[in-house]
Amino acid sequence: MPDPDIIVVGAGVAGLSAAVDLARAGLRVEIIEARNRIGGRIFTVRDSENCPIELGAEFIHGRPPEIWNLLRENNIEAAEVEGDTWCEQRGQLQPCDFFDEVEDILAKMDDSRPDQSFLDFLSSCCPNAREEAKQRALGYVTGFNAADPADVSVHWLVQSQREEEKIDGERAFRIKSGYDTLIGIFRAQLAQMNVPVHLHTAVHKIRWRTGHIHVIAHNAEGAVTFTAPRVLITVPLAILQAGAIHFAPDLPPDKQRALAQIAMGKVIRVTLRFRERFWDTLRPPAGGGKSLADLSFLLSQHDVFPTWWTTMPEKLPIITGWAPFRDADTLSGMGEPYIADRAIEVLSEVLDVHRDYVDVLVAAAFTHDWQVDPFARGAYSYVKVGGMNAPQVLGAPVENTLFFAGEATDVSGNTGTVHGAIASAKRAVEELMPGK
């Protein structure tokens, strides 16, 4: 067998998308993936009722063409998230009343001024804002972006907001059949074009010189080497930061500086399936007589799982807890039984329902600790103060031999998203095949 024209390292959505486009252009492509599955941080499992449970990416943020074009071409349905958002305020659940104030605070971020962290911005931006509104704004940035507010760049947050506005990013959708349906599209396309995918093959070294690379990996049979003129590296940011793949010679200094200017966010999420939607009949005392039957999001003030959501508009007996940033640090490495137990405990407290009652109704719990996952080492990326050029530098080719893609290298302002990962793949393909 002749060597491939290009090796793609990583079978996340960026690697899969790039491999499909390269193969369509007539190049011989091979994919190397450390996991025993493709999809990366898109990880869908099925419960006993064959309902998709997302352990990784779940939402489509807005209407990005990178995803919606694929859905339309393949007749795949997506449902818009609907329902009521409830908040824990002053120790009671009630309809949220601070969103306008939070939006006013976020609107004051300005990328024409020197960059600063969100925490520094918040300490000086809004002297007349209510403290609760400031704390909710802080919770939004740490929750949505999985970011350390003392590190995350205000310039990057402003850029992200601008890009979200272009695609109706305030709206959220789910793929009704599960996010792995998207992965299934890529799987079928790769099979049709006979693109080999080497699963359970972990790359640990890339030796390279201009126009020639050796990718050294391990699989169940031992060491294996792949050779090609070029390589496209699409592994998560934290894998490169940890030096899990050794480059010989080293990556250029500007690449190493860029790696230090982007951070990998932390998240623990747990999905609880119940025997029934027990919250439908709950009527919080401060809720004006309204029940939680149409609950979509629940924003609590708990220090472990501050955010929860249901499957609305589908009324399934499922609810997901979201623990970002320091909350994730608290839980990471503790094991699935402990994480599920803490989630049940917190949900009982927030809904003011006796723990024993909730325990009886729990049918199953699903979680995945991305921080200790050796092939992810985190959730998704964000840019640190002063690092606005870092994604572009990280994604730039080296001597027309090493190429890079993945959500952390996205230059369209959609770092940290599935559509940003696909956009980065499209950019890398253009670099690999200029003029085509």
List the defining traits of the structure above:
globular; five-stranded parallel sheet; FAD/NAD(P)-binding domain; 436 residues; Polyamine Oxidase, Chain A, domain 2; 2 domains
| CATH class membership of the largest domain | Alpha Beta
At CATH level 3, the topology of the largest domain is: Polyamine Oxidase, Chain A, domain 2
Query: What spatial order of strands do you see in the largest sheet?
Result: 8-7-18-19-20-17-21
Strand content: 15-25%
Q: What is the straight-line distance between the termini?
A: 26 Å
Q: Any chance you could write out the topology, listing elements then pairs?
A:
Layout: E1 6-9, H1 13-24, E2 29-32, E3 44-46, E4 52-54, E5 60-61, H2 65-73, E6 78-80, E7 84-89, E8 92-95, H3 99-107, H4 118-125, H5 131-144, H6 154-166, E9 172-175, H7 180-192, E10 197-198, E11 202-209, E12 212-219, E13 222-228, E14 230-233, H8 237-241, E15 246-248, H9 253-260, E16 262-264, E17 267-274, E18 295-299, E19 307-310, E20 318-324, H10 326-331, H11 336-351, H12 355-361, E21 362-367, E22 381-383, H13 390-395, E23 402-404, H14 418-432
Parallel strand pairs: 1-2, 1-14, 2-10, 7-18, 11-15, 14-23
Antiparallel strand pairs: 3-4, 5-9, 6-9, 7-8, 11-12, 12-13, 16-22, 17-20, 17-21, 18-19, 19-20
Helix pairs in contact: 1-7, 1-14, 3-5
